[in-house]
Batch of 2 targets.
Target 1
Amino acid sequence: MPRFFVSKENINEEERSISILGEDAFHIARSLRMAVGDALTVCDGEGMDYECNLTKIRDDRVDCDIEISRPCPAEPPYRATLYQALVKGERLDVAIQKSVEFGVSNIVPFESSRCIVRMKGEKEGSKSQRRRRIAAEAAKQCGRGIIPAVAEPISFADMIAEAAKADLAIFCYEKEGERMLGATLEALRANPPKTVAIVVGPEGGFSPEEAERAEKAGLSLLGLGKRILRTESAAAFVLACLSSEFELR
């Protein structure tokens, strides 16, 4: 069923109606060629789904009646923030798309010592806009109840300070051979975290100094197994493990 996000101001709870405006309205009218009476799902972007039927269709505005409203079943029971190091090419785009599909709530790019891409060299206006569009499209495709936010890049120091506030702060470190992600999550099964931070490094990984700073700040240095993952794959792997441990049981 087609799925669209709207602002809360476009939802009239008293009259049980919703208006869809702009590009989405045009998409419904022209691309999907939907008709009055057709069903669709509308989400307020805050985790609430509305099952609706179309009542009026124009190129710039579509109106629909609310049949059922309920919390979106696709949202995990924890809020996960991905701190993804800046990487070259389309790797960050892939990391954003797949992380949204696997249940991330926020994405924060950051700069570390081994990053090839630097914040000063970024054309942040266009890049940030594209990244947010990727997150929005992925959220629609996989039935999310929110559109995960994609922040502007921050420094390594600021990232560490933010990540340390989470109930569980995972610092993905390929040189950690003893403390593994699976054992850590299993130990938390009886008391699952409400907030999770996932820190993923660039193509060359983290320096020993950065790992030491992260550990001193309270982050958990964890290995992800016997295989070294690409930077654009690591977050999706961690999110899948979180889902298996705390959401799918």
Note: The chain has a mean pLDDT of 95.
Target 2
Amino acid sequence: MKFDKHSLRLYVVTDRRWLRGQTLEEQVEEIIKAGTSFIQLREKELEHKQFVEMAKKLKEVTDSYGIPFVINDNVEVALEVNADGIHVGQSDTDVEQVRALLGPNKIVGASARTLEQALLAQEKGADYLGVGAVFATSTKEDAKTLSRNSLKKIANGVDIPVVAIGGITENNILGLKGSNIAGVALISSILAAPNVGEATKKMANLVKEVV
């Protein structure tokens, strides 16, 4: 698995609400083949054993394609399945603690909404930042939107790559041009599409114009 800012270009966060008869690993393989470059497994409700089983299956897929695979906010699962890293939100485990637990060679991503939060996460050992919500999103209905200027200010103010997240679709993604981001993180614009492979290809082409 190779990780650099190019790995973050098309970052997909899983959501099992839109499997439509596929297994999660089948869906993930389809979107990787179509251009997804980074996978985050996000599960808030699963029991530990089920979470670990699912993470192991996904890691087999991502390993076979050399795609980075991180777990959302569960250090125990990340360690148990030897995931490539973890992503933590502002209200989750502290970045410094996560870095200490995972060691220097794992990927640590952190969410940020302000330059101050971004700089602190960078200082504590984050490898990349998820910044948003850049547009209104149904995935997190309580998420306040961030202006393009604020996104650009954060991306220009840190030395680590920034991924824009939140409500990004084929209709608004080009509005992120010039914001100095490394990529976009997507959920529903790909996973809720009737054909996830076609949606991935479309977004992969559009994101090239942005980054």
Note: The beta strands are 10-13, 38-41, 69-72, 85-88, 107-112, 128-132, 162-165, 183-186.
